[in-house]
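Extended Data, panel c. Modelled sequence:
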Amino acid sequence: MKKTAFLFMTAALISGAAMAQAYPVKPIRLVVPLAPGGTTDLIARMVAERMSPILGQPVVIENRGGAGGTIASNHVAKSEPDGYTLLMGTIGTAAIAPAMYASLPYDPEKDFEAVSLLTTGQFVLAVNPSVPAKTLGEFLSLAREKPGTLSYGSAGNGSTLHLGMELLKQNAGINIVHVPYRGSGPMVVALVGGEIQAGLPDIPSALPFIESGKLRPLAVTSADRSTILPDIPTLAESGFKDYSVTVWLGIYAPAGTPRAIVDKLNESIALAVQDENLKMRLAKIDSSIATSTPDEFAEFSRNERAKWKAIVDTSGSRIE
């Protein structure tokens, strides 16, 4: 019996190695869980374009938006684990959605193989210029003086923009009203127009309005200052030392994808992001390259899910 099991395992390893050696022999689909045109789609296309010549096959973007990214995630989870269907995972789809949705048609832990973390970026706490607060401290004082009178917008219930502000509310002990919009674009428009007083947009979306004086930046959300907004302090250095919210992207494959294929994809990503033009284009949208090994990305994903589950549970947010 033991001999049979050993032979079966050996055959499987040989088969997986042979498959990886030949891989890829046809185009690879990288499924993006958002509509075309956004930052995630843009980064996916830039990276896919540079992976293609390394792998010797086209890496084709397929946009599948809807339901907080769960439609795309479920599609990839149920796909053949052969390395030809990949998922561009985001903080929203891979870390927040598992906590927000009462049930999912897939298991975020068991149904994916982590391939590589890809990029990280950050958000900026911005206010409409009508708000008489020039610093984060002044904004928090105003919120405490008039609880429930200030409002902030988000890209919808359960979005990173929503939960990032909920985390600040919890840490700062303030009460400001949440106003959800259908996406970050409409939220930024509402913030510029004065429908809401505050928001937590990603820096590329807010930058034109910051530069024109239509939005006032108060703090950025990651541990380090933004290279685009170097004069704006982080929330961590403003007194919230444990506060860090980064927007991140990473690539996943369906569970069961041979490790040799996962490693080959990981290597192609690491090579692709060395392109100097890609680095410059990412820097312009405040995205930093943050590649990893598959095991490092798997651990990172677990930690992010645990972190956001705690935030979701405290906020009371839930999507049935």
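The two ends are 47 Å apart (CA to CA). This feature is highlighted in the accompanying rendering.
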